[in-house]
Amino acid sequence: MRGHPADALREAGKDASMLVVGSRGRSTARSMLLGSISHGVLHHAPCPVAVLA
Is 20 helix (H, G, I), strand (E, B) or coil? Predict the structure, then answer.
């Protein structure tokens, strides 16, 4: 797929049971933050979203 990653993931989510995205970092503090892609998918996905640290 081409385009912005969040848009591509949301498009893929139309036919998915769930989308899985990662959090922003590996350290304890950073893993609590969402990156822009995860944030965009989480709030606008057409299906459930799991955010993994």
Answer: strand
List beta partners, residue 51.
Answer: 21
Range of the domain at 31: 5-52
Which 3 state secondary structure label does DSSP give 9? helix
Nearest to 51 by CA among 25, 12, 14: 25
pTM of the model: 0.74
**How far is Cα 37 from Cα 21, in angstroms, rounded to an integer?**
8
Domain count of the chain? 1
CB atoms within 10 A of CB 22: 15
Distance CA 16, CA 10 (A): 10
**pLDDT one-digit tens code per residue, 10-20:** 999 999 999 99
